[in-house]
Amino acid sequence: MVIESLHAEEICGFYVDEKMKLVWKTELELLKKFISVCEKYNLKYYMAGGSLLGAIRHSGFIPWDDDIDIDMPRDDYNKLLEIAKYEFTDPIFFQTTYTEQNYVRPHAQIRNSNTTAIVSHEKGLYFNQGIFIDIFPLDSVPTNKIKRYFHSNILKLLSIILKAGIMINPVKNPSRLKCLAHYLVMPIFKLFDYKKLFHLFEDICSRYNNNKNLPIGEISFDYRDKCIWPRECFNDITIKDFMGLKVACPIGYDTILKITFGDYMTPQQEASYHGNIIFDTEISYKEYLEK
């Protein structure tokens, strides 16, 4: 792993402070561990989103990015879930809806439990909130417009129900609308365990995975066209440098990045996806949650 300097500096016209450099360092350590597990078990993965763009354009992080994104075919993703508890040990925590209580996300995160990365709207929630990297499953997407309409909207509805019921603390959330949504969906969870409902969500995500001719995408997280790509983009990999680590990128990265970002080789500074976030590389999230 190469971060040439942990001191603050300007990169591509963007100021990167020392704290973010330390966050990057922590995330690179998580990525290195993840890659070693994938290589051990022969699991396919691909750099994704802003991290794929960073690997191609910067050979590392986009200066204004604050995390690492990874895609995995659903089958490989499920295998990772099965072996994770044996390979990721304290302080590294492999986090999914199934490994946490009162927590739901459509993808996995690998966290460092001795650190802090608390997203502003999740301050009142009690789950592992260490610095993380994201791992998204890839699922097949129907090309038939009617099938895609129903597939996408059923998933969106289930996602709204799950997040409103589990990921909103009405005592600490300042949004009246979100609190109202929380109370409206709570009767559902008196009838159905939320983890069973999430399992249904994943089953629907995987509904078309037996068809190997369909496009694939991060539809459990984002069903928009910019997150759906031709399957052949993932037929092979090309190895790129990412802050000194050798990482797997999809062979069709050019097509993927054009669909997602447009003219991706021209830097366009954007806000981090996660927005306001409390980062601390030295203090555990547990101390922040106790405040």
UniProtKB/TrEMBL annotation:
<protein>
    <submittedName>
        <fullName>LicD family protein</fullName>
    </submittedName>
</protein>
<dbReference type="InterPro" id="IPR052942">
    <property type="entry name" value="LPS_cholinephosphotransferase"/>
</dbReference>
<dbReference type="InterPro" id="IPR007074">
    <property type="entry name" value="LicD/FKTN/FKRP_NTP_transf"/>
</dbReference>
<feature type="domain" description="LicD/FKTN/FKRP nucleotidyltransferase">
    <location>
        <begin position="38"/>
        <end position="262"/>
    </location>
</feature>
<dbReference type="Pfam" id="PF04991">
    <property type="entry name" value="LicD"/>
</dbReference>
<dbReference type="GO" id="GO:0009100">
    <property type="term" value="P:glycoprotein metabolic process"/>
</dbReference>
